[in-house]
Write a structure and sequence with these properties.
single chain, alpha+beta, Alpha-D-Glucose-1,6-Bisphosphate, Chain A, domain 4, 28% helix, globular
Length: 153
C-alpha cells in the first residue's frame, strides 16, 4: 500500500483516475488497460481488461467492485477474488490524499510465498511507489501556465 498527498481537490484527482486507458501512463507496471465494453462507463459491475507485470495470466479481467464518486475505485479479479486493485482518495481541506493497494494470490505454499515476497512483490511495491509520484505529477500539472512562473523567487 502506498499513499501520496496531492495539491488538488479530490474531484480533479478522481477524474484522472477514472481515465482507464491512461493508466499505463502513470502505472509503470501496466502494459495496457481498457474497459471491456467500448464506450462504457466506469460503474459497479463494469469490466476492465488489464495487461500487466503482476504475476498471472497475460491479460486479466477485473470487475469494478466498489465505486464511490470522487472517493474510491476498487477492482476485483473476475476469476480470483484474491486479486485486487484499490484506489482511495481522501479530502484534506483544499488538498487530497490518494492511497493505492494491489493484492494478488501466491500459489505453491510457504516457500513460494516467501520467494515471491522477496522478488516480484518487492519489485511491484517499488513500481507502485514510483507510479504514485507519476500520478501526482499528472494531477498537479497546470495547463496554460508557463513553467517559469513556478520558478520565480
Amino acid at each position: 500500500m502506498h499513499a501520496v498527498d496531492l495539491q488538488t481537490p479530490p474531484e480533479a484527482a478522481f477524474a484522472v483516475l477514472c481515465e482507464v486507458e491512461k493508466w499505463p501512463v502513470w502505472l509503470s507496471f501496466l502494459r495496457s488497460a481498457r474497459l471491456a465494453q467500448p464506450g462504457g462507463s466506469l460503474t459497479p459491475g463494469a469490466e476492465v481488461l488489464v495487461r500487466s507485470a503482476i504475476p498471472g495470466d497475460e491479460e486479466q479481467l477485473y470487475e469494478v467492485d466498489q465505486y464511490i464518486e470522487n472517493h474510491m475505485l476498487a477492482l476485483v479479479g473476475a476469476y480470483s477474488v484474491r486479486r485486487r486493485i484499490d484506489f482511495r482518495i481522501e479530502r484534506k481541506t483544499t488538498r487530497s490524499k490518494m492511497t493505492a493497494r494491489i493484492d494478488y494470490p501466491t500459489y505453491g505454499g510457504r516457500v513460494a510465498a516467501f520467494v515471491d515476497r522477496l522478488t516480484k512483490r518487492r519489485k511491484l511495491s517499488s513500481a507502485l511507489a514510483e507510479s504514485m509520484v507519476h500520478f501526482k505529477g499528472l494531477v498537479e500539472y497546470r495547463r496554460g501556465e508557463a513553467a517559469a512562473d513556478d520558478l520565480e523567487l
